[in-house]
Amino acid sequence: MDGNGNNSYDMPIGLSFQLGMNTKAMEAYAKLNDEEKREVVDAARNVADKSEMHQIVEGLERNYC
Questions:
Q1: Cβ–Cβ contacts within 10 Å for residue 18, how many?
Q2: Where are the domains of the chain?
Q3: Burial of 24 (0-12, 13-18, 19+ CB in 10 A)
Q4: CA gap 49, 1 in Å, rounded
Q5: Interval 16-29 mean pLDDT
Q6: d(CA 37, CA 56)
Q7: Residues 27, 38, 58, 16: is their CA dihedral positive or negative?
Q8: Contact criterion met (CB below 8 Å) for 25 and 57
Q9: Mean pLDDT of the chain
Q10: What's the pTM?
Q11: How far apart are CA 4 and CA 9, in angstroms?
Q12: What is the C-alpha to C-alpha distance for residues 5 and 29, in angstroms, rounded to an integer?
């Protein structure tokens, strides 16, 4: 939580961008609970390239929709 009591995952810009381009994945992310969202964000922080980020977003679409 940040100083205002809000959950702040500091989503990587690459993840935000990829989710913005994939409506189904964005909807799937929105349905996740806080722990699942944290896991996605943590995975996104550890990617080495754009294709890995794309795989994370595609996985959201496949596994949660």
A1: 21
A2: 13-64
A3: middle
A4: 28
A5: 95
A6: 12
A7: positive
A8: yes
A9: 87
A10: 0.80
A11: 13
A12: 21
